[in-house]
Amino acid sequence: MKSVAEIEADLAKACDGEGIRYALTGFSGAARYAPSVRYQRAMAYVSLDVERIAKLLSLKEVTSGANVTFLVPYDEGVLYGTRAVEGICIASPVQVYLDLFGMKGRGEEAAKAILDEVIRRSW
Q1: pLDDT for 33-57, tens place per residue?
Q2: Contact 29, 90 (CB under 8 A)
Q3: Which of 16, 42, 95, 123 is the most exposed place for a label (fewest CB within 10 A)?
Q4: Residue ranges per domain, the chain?
């Protein structure tokens, strides 16, 4: 089984190769902006058919223990202000902050790290 980092790199390569807009978010984004917590699930916005991307990555749907979450944006705004970090597209720091803030567990902690280390420094 691949690590989360390998899955994220494969996603970036597949989406770039197919011209699919994507951006890592949640803990996947936080790991690039302000690493503060460990995580076990890749999370990304994808602009096209999730099934197609899952097939490109040889992923299969499971009922529990998922290590990848794809979010289809309700509008393209969540992909505004993306940044490339080590060749991987990451949602804007504000979007990653918003996505993390509503997560249970250590989401608020990771959101605060982004706020303190990235967002406030840009004001």
Answers
A1: 999 989 999 999 998 778 889 999 9
A2: yes
A3: 123
A4: 4-122
Q: Which of 89, 71, 83, 75 is nearest to 19 (CA)?
A: 89
Residues in the chain: 123
Secondary structure of 28-68 in HEC code, one letter for each residue: HHHHHHCCCCCCCCEEEEECCCHHHHHHHCCCCCCCCCCCE
What DSSP character marks residue 75? S
Higher pLDDT, 91 or 60: 91
CA gap 83, 101 in Å, rounded: 20
Residue 25 and residue 98: Cα distance in Å, rounded?
A: 10
Is the pLDDT at 105 greater than 90? The verdict is no
Q: Which residues contact 40 (CB under 8 A, 6 or more apart)?
A: 4, 67
Residues 76-102: tens digit of each pLDDT = 899 999 999 999 999 999 999 999 998
